[in-house]
Input
Amino acid sequence: MSAPPSGGCGAAVINEVLTDDELRAVLTRLGPEAERDAFGLVCRRWLQIQSSERRRLRVRAGPDMLRRLAARFPGVLELDLSQSVARSFFPGVNDDDLDVVAGAFRNLHVLDLQYCKGITDVGVAKLGDGLPSLQSLDVSGCSKLSDKGLKAVVLGCQKLRQLHITGCRLITDNLLLALSKSCLQLEELEAASCSSITDAGISALADGCHHIKSLDISNCNKVSDSGLCKIAEISSSCLVSLKLLYCSKVGDQSIYALAKFCHNLETLVIGGCLNVSDASIEALALACSSSLRCLRMDWCSKVTDVSLRSLLSKCKLLVAIDVGCCDQITGAAFQDIERNGFQSQLRILKVGCCGSLTVAGVSSAIKSCKALEYLDVRSCPQVTRDSCEQAGLQFPGGCKVNFDGRLAEPDPSSGRWF
Output
């Protein structure tokens, strides 16, 4: 009986048969990152091909290592150097690192520097000179940055579509003015807690950036109806997400403008906007009945069951709503829609600290919202674990009901939905 042929005796050697392009085609068909890493362990040639095809990189490295990584992975388009909040007090990434990034990763489309508190305007300005293809930049929590450094980025990176500057308290209207002149394709701006931004900056942004899809200016207390009405009118059908948490000067006029112009709005956060009332919410519910999915309006003290009834009956796609701390919510809206046989698609319902909410209202809510995944009834004096058990309430299977805890505690639903 003859032995099977061994290598070198007519057996094909895969590296002699397959070209680089064919090996790249194999690599593109691999799914999980672990499979792609295993591809590179076969031999040096396969490792080089894998390295050349890598598009994303998340690292913790100094200047020397960054240079090596740039040489090994020349095709990288997304670079993540971000730090966690818990470790953000460490120096971490600094201006020397950004100098290497600007010089060695010149094809970058996405750069994440979140909570890199060691970087300054000097380092960030170099990004503007070296990354002309940059489309997304996140410098949230980088507290040393000001208009000076970021204006250099805006001038040099005119393809920018996403800019996250949440918590950069030194930023002013001047940066928004620069954005409006240079980054005309900007689609997403997160500027929460940039407390120096005013209506003038928001109006300037609207003048130049006509494609804004997502805007977060929560805790920007100098912004009022004037600026928001302009952004609503100009962004109109583009605007999908708007977050105005604790913007105390925002009132009904802004909500009416959204109802008039922004019929594709999916997410709206107006928690703490004390001047918003039922009339404007009813107009919004009617205008955005086929788009609105998530609405947060906790601490809106003028909002009553009238708003809730209108939203639940008209907005068929609504999956998350927060009316916590709205004292005038009683649950009558839920009883009304139960009587009408309406079934809501709500998955998240937050009614914590609604002192007038009754067990009867909660009972109607769970009968009309059978898809509920999370129900927050914390600090509702009439709705307790005992009172619900005594009433024989049967919550939907898989629904987490939060009876306990302080309202200040982290809420798992917030990041996902609001």
